[in-house]
């Protein structure tokens, strides 16, 4: 098996332009708002996205037929890492969660009519979206089979009833992709269906916006209620009862793109720590010459290189059409934890300055901690990794 990690001139050029765009345009905007955009105004998003278009880096993941740059996952890994160097970089380039994952899902599963109605404006940045699967306990969370929201057949369509929470980007989204149970009972492995629900549909209500540790996701995280929400048959995404399979179509690549973006954030923390270690002296010597600081800097370099290698390998697997579930879980688990270690070390190297608002490290620390929970907590992935490993010997 030959694995190629070569980068084309096209991808290298997009990555270079992305790095320049993030440095010159996006980071000044991030500094102005402190990286907190849960309730930021839409004009900020539109301004950043127009600047990305002007720089030729808008929508790198979107197929060319829908106005994007059409990069495969390996290309996205290079470019998204550069985008993630700023908390607002992915937003500016329209490759932030949850829209990036929804774009992939719609392109893969939606009908031609649904692509025109939902995918095209989403890809163009004209609207935002959300993915409504997670529910308050005892509903779907780490175990999606616990899905409790129901969709019942009625004349001409479906009635959706249930409650969702921690729905990222829901506030201001033009539509939701809602997972609801159309057969079976909570705990069953099948029986889920995806529905496209337009904002303003009677019966879908935003209950509240959650206050969370992180504040860097545009639109925040919300709780939604579906109470007799009626949708037509044309708003079923894919086949009825096939929703869990489609969720994997979305979640596999989405876990990797999260890793790409957060690796960029980790690199930024590393760069801040290196600058501080080289310029700050203590005990008569630069910090960079002190053994304990050197160990932290070295461990950070190891974590970055290992994260990138795992990420590129997993991207290669999916680009080749291979299942990739094992490598995706390994990558998500390792990178989410490595990113946390990298940012934490950077704070430690910078000392009191690191926990102040004078540097972005305290904001980065708050942003990356939930990554060990999003898209499956580390414990769930380790359980799945071990099960697959054991099955290979039976």
Automatic annotation (TrEMBL):
Its cofactor is FAD. Pfam families: Acyl-CoA_dh_1, Acyl-CoA_dh_M, Acyl-CoA_dh_N. Residues 242-389 form the Acyl-CoA dehydrogenase/oxidase C-terminal domain. GO terms for cellular component: cytoplasm. InterPro entries: Acyl-CoA_dehydrogenase, Acyl-CoA_Oxase/DH_mid-dom, Acyl-CoA_Oxase/DH_mid-dom_sf, AcylCo_DH-like_C, AcylCo_DH/oxidase_C, AcylCoA_DH/ox_N, AcylCoA_DH/ox_N_sf, AcylCoA_DH/oxidase_NM_dom_sf. Gene3D superfamilies: Acyl-CoA dehydrogenase/oxidase, N-terminal domain, Butyryl-CoA Dehydrogenase, subunit A, domain 2, Butyryl-CoA Dehydrogenase, subunit A, domain 3. Residues 12-126 form the Acyl-CoA dehydrogenase/oxidase N-terminal domain. One of its GO terms (biological process) is fatty acid beta-oxidation using acyl-CoA dehydrogenase. Keywords: FAD, Flavoprotein, Oxidoreductase. Residues 130-212 form the Acyl-CoA oxidase/dehydrogenase middle domain. One of its GO terms (molecular function) is flavin adenine dinucleotide binding. Homodimer. Belongs to the acyl-CoA dehydrogenase family. This is Acyl-CoA dehydrogenase.
